[in-house]
Predict the structure.
Amino acid sequence: MKKEEKIKVGISVGDLNGIGTEVILKTFKDNRMLELCTPVIFGSTKILSFQKKHFNIHTNLHGIPNAEKIQHGKINVVNITKEAVNIEYGKSSEAVGKFAIKSFTEATNALKEGMIDVLVTAPINKHNVQSEEFTFPGHTDYLGATLEGDSLMLMVNDTLRVGLLTDHVAVKDVSAAITPELIEKKVNIIYNTLKQDFGVAKPKIAVLGINPHVGDNGVIGVEDDEILKPTLEKIKNEGKLVFGPYAADSFFASSNYKNFDAILAAYHDQGLIPFKTLSFGQGVNFTAGLNKVRTSPDHGTAYEIAGKNKADHNSFKEAVFTGIQIFRNRNIYKEIAENPLKKQPSKI
């Protein structure tokens, strides 16, 4: 691949008191990563140099004033501020939260303007990032409001994809949030992303029930019978291979998930607990349904091990790999959609 063809991967640094910069530096200390992509970290060479020294990671950084100055073959660092930030590993800080959001919003702007191709976000602390300027529960919600399309949190690894009907919603509000319109929208998003982003020609989607045992015919709640089942039947009649609802407590333990291209869970923990249990730190969070590609690792700030050089960077590295592959798949899908009669190269 020529230098000018390399995919530009923008990276927001997340909470500096967590493990974000550690996993970023560990990922790109392998020079082979520069053969795959061009990293663009939105942060500060001064701060990253401090982190390099702390973790004894020997990685050459290339400071640039803005994303227009990106150089291929280097680890670019867009210096988003000249202000110093006090780093205290394992502690929540308002100043660090402010820096995390500045990194994220500037990276998002670069993504929106096409200066980077993919965005990979390191973990933030959802509490210390809140301000009058940023009132979103997390990355996904901000991206959904900023970019084009409707967002869906999709957790992925090599063998499993789990999407959510509701993501950052309190458990007490889940049932009221699930409507026929929401179910149809989320199924359509996951169906389309399987086709364009993962190359699945005829997606098979499983949907989990809202209540224990799918409500037991109304004994444990009526939402499954009155909302979920009729809506799924309507979607099936439109020609989509959608199955369920399935009882969530036995679905993953029985390995039934292996029969589907994706699973749609009713709420956050119903989908993420089994996913994270099965993914063993190899999982990736992909924001499906948007016009741009964003991924992140499947873990949080991990304050308890921050600064101790114990963080496993595999999930972050997988987030980079997944973002690149989705970007490529999406471009291939667009090309085929625009030229449906274009002949494919003969295989001899």
Observations:
- Residues 344-348 have pLDDT under 50 and may be disordered.
- The radius of gyration is 21 Å.
- The first helix runs from residue 20 to 28.
